[in-house]
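FORM 7B: Structural annotation worksheet

SECTION A. Query
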Amino acid sequence: MYKPEYSDITYLKSIPKKPDFNGLLKILRGGKADRPHLFEFFLNETLYNAFADEADYADIADPYLRACVRNASAYRNAGYDYVVIGGQGYGFPRKSNPHSDRSYSLNEVVTIADRESFEAYKLEDPSNEGIYKIYTDILPYLPDGMKVVGQQPGGLLENAIALCGYDSLCLNMYDDPDLVGDIFEAIGSRLIDYTRRVVSNESTGAMIINDDWGFNTQTMISHADMRRYVLPYIAHMINVCHEAGKPAILHSCGNLGTGSDSLYEDLIAAGLDAKHSFEDVICPIEQVYETYKGRISLMGGIDVNYICTSTPEDVYNRSLAMLRRAAADGGFALGTGNSVPYYVPSEGYAAMIAAALTE
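SECTION B. Predicted structure
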């Protein structure tokens, strides 16, 4: 039964917790754990600061290590068994960065428009060991039982769209498909190399392949083009994770389709361990779970809009019901449908995680 203190971060922080990444690992691999587990791609600055203990990171001079240790402290105190960390200083830079805290146009800037601009574009080398130093530096600061979940510097399709512009990329799929293939190969091969280096670290327990693929009604490009340009590299990334003995999690927004043409079928065939990011307007997590349970693990799923527009009690009750739905078959960890951006009410987020912390 819901209690008002379940929406109070201070109260939830005070509940004793012991990280258990091995329990989460069982869920990621389709099994059941001894207790409910939480999963989130990222929180927000307000929540990181509210949950973290400043004493855990106050004496750290390096800004990036300090931020990562703060996040690890917050994740631990909120009841997670891991902290998400990306390598430092690697990516696919464009002429200007269109990202903001609110919104941006997928056509705001075009860095690669044709063969000439592609060949002139300087691709960064992912072999620089300094990129991955954080995965070693974080080890002494990880609470007992916690691991790192590695994060990519944006996904394959995301980076292709960011570099080319959405309209330009789509037009080139017709005008110059060989160029598009070369662009995806250039990005994909480097993300594979990056992933291999991240999962080789002792601190890394799993890898997020973070690549948003679509919107409410469909993917950004056709399923045929997804299978031509994107999925072969995703399958390779999954294999790289498995070769290191680590599970692979796909974080991808958008409608992946239904039935035999669903990209879920491609992902399951490729051996993907877990899928993250769901929206009620596409398909509620309860229905997704009933469709795919036993075939792929599902992480999160309590719709962000639902959390924003519902009472904490309703959020708690839905979250608890989802945990109980999945208790018999496993392969589910509780979390939001996407992430916890700044506009999500902290009371609603707290009520959601309370379902796992008090069950």
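SECTION C. Observations
Residues 4-358 form a domain with the TIM Barrel fold (CATH 3.20.20.210). The CA atoms of residues 86 and 119 lie 27 Å apart.

SECTION D. Sign-off
Analyst initials: ____
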